[in-house]
Structure formats: structure tokens, C-alpha cells
């Protein structure tokens, strides 16, 4: 049973990134950007001295994960509609859907290849939660669960909860 919920929704917990969303009918958006805001809530019990974990450590963890996607182009790497080719320091991306064929070329360092088939807010939230789970050991053993919530724009948020 979780005793406490610690929610971190600092202004700096954000990443500005470009993407396009694919839709089932083969339509896709033009490349565009969002200032994604990230909120993470950790659930758990108080350990020594009534501390779940050091707030500093939790905020540093979340900020590091935001920085990994900040000022990047987010490209799905496992989509049947997207072909990615690395050529020298460039990443060539060909999107071929039943409705569209588009070619992009980005400096490799500007791109994050996502382990998913669409750069949707749902997938971003799940991948962010996977990354939090992989780093949770840094916060000790008091965490029994967490929730990640990502907003693409004001008034529009995807949230996902995980139990540990
Ligand atoms: N289920 C999802 N649907 C859509 C997603 C998504 O991640 N999951 N994403 C988008 C686009 O990224 C788009 O940029 C956001 O679309 P939209 O809701 O139209 O955004 P606006 O901020 O322009 O919304 P307004 O309500 O018009 O202000 C689309 N769909």
C-alpha cells in the first residue's frame, strides 16, 4: 500500500521536439514541433528519516530523460511505413504510406530513433516510463509505483501508471 505520492511537474521538465504523427488510414501530419511538458509522480513509503528518496535525485533523473529528447527530431524506428538509412553523418528517412511518400534528411545527431511505430504521445509516454523504470534503482527501494504524464500542448495529456 503506497503511503505517499511525490509529484514533480517543474517547468524545466520539458523537451522541445519535432515529429509527425501517422494515422491508420495512411495520412500523416507535416513535420512539426511541440514543447512537451512532463510530470512524474512517484508512489511509495517513507524510508529512513521519513524520506521516500531525495527530491534532488528524482528531479535530476526526470530532467536527464527530458534532455535526451530535447531539440531532437523524434523518428519511429519500427514502422513498416518508415525506412531509415544512415549515410555519413546524415539520416535519410523515407515515409511511404498508402497515401503519401515523403523523403527527409537530417543530421544524425539531431535525431532520436524511437523503439516504436509512431511518434504519438502515447508511445512517447510509454517509452519515457520505460526509461524511468530502468533508472528507478537510483531512488532506493521506497518507490512502489509511478505515473508519467506528457502534454503535447496545454489541456492535452497522456498519462501512464506502472506498479513496481
Ligand atoms: N491519439 C493521438 N492522437 C493524436 C496525437 C497523439 O499523439 N495521439 N498527436 C497529434 C499531433 O501531434 C498533433 O500535433 C496534436 O494534434 P491536435 O490535437 O490537433 O493538436 P492541437 O494542439 O492543434 O489541438 P487543438 O485542440 O486544435 O488546439 C494528433 N493526434
UniProtKB/TrEMBL annotation:
Swiss-Prot/TrEMBL cofactor(s): Zn(2+)
InterPro entries recorded: 6-PTP_synth/QueD, 6-PTP_synth/QueD_sf
Coiled coil spans: none
Protein's name according to its UniProt entry: 6-carboxy-5,6,7,8-tetrahydropterin synthase
Reactions catalysed according to its record: 7,8-dihydroneopterin 3'-triphosphate + H2O = 6-carboxy-5,6,7,8-tetrahydropterin + triphosphate + acetaldehyde + 2 H(+)
Organism from which the protein derives: Sulfidibacter corallicola
Source lineage: Bacteria, Pseudomonadati, Acidobacteriota, Holophagae, Acanthopleuribacterales
EC numbers, comma separated: 4.1.2.50
MF-aspect GO terms: 6-carboxytetrahydropterin synthase activity; metal ion binding
Keyword Acetylation among record annotations: no
Pathway info: Purine metabolism; 7-cyano-7-deazaguanine biosynthesis
Amino acid at each position: 500500500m503506497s503511503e505517499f505520492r511525490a509529484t514533480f511537474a517543474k517547468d524545466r521538465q520539458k523537451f522541445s521536439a519535432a515529429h509527425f504523427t501517422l494515422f491508420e488510414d495512411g495520412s500523416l501530419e507535416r513535420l512539426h514541433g511541440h514543447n512537451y511538458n512532463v510530470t512524474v509522480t512517484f508512489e511509495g513509503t517513507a524510508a529512513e528519516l521519513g524520506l521516500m528518496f531525495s527530491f534532488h535525485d528524482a528531479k535530476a533523473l526526470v530532467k536527464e530523460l527530458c534532455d535526451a529528447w530535447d531539440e531532437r527530431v523524434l523518428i519511429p524506428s519500427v514502422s513498416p511505413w518508415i525506412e531509415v538509412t544512415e549515410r555519413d553523418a546524415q539520416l535519410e528517412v523515407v515515409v511511404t504510406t498508402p497515401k503519401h511518400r515523403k523523403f527527409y534528411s537530417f543530421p544524425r545527431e539531431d535525431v532520436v530513433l524511437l523503439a516504436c511505430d509512431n511518434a504519438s504521445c502515447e508511445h512517447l509516454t510509454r517509452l519515457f516510463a520505460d526509461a524511468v523504470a530502468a533508472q528507478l534503482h537510483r531512488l532506493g527501494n521506497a518507490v512502489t509505483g509511478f505515473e508519467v504524464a506528457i502534454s503535447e500542448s496545454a489541456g492535452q495529456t497522456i498519462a501512464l501508471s506502472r506498479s513496481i
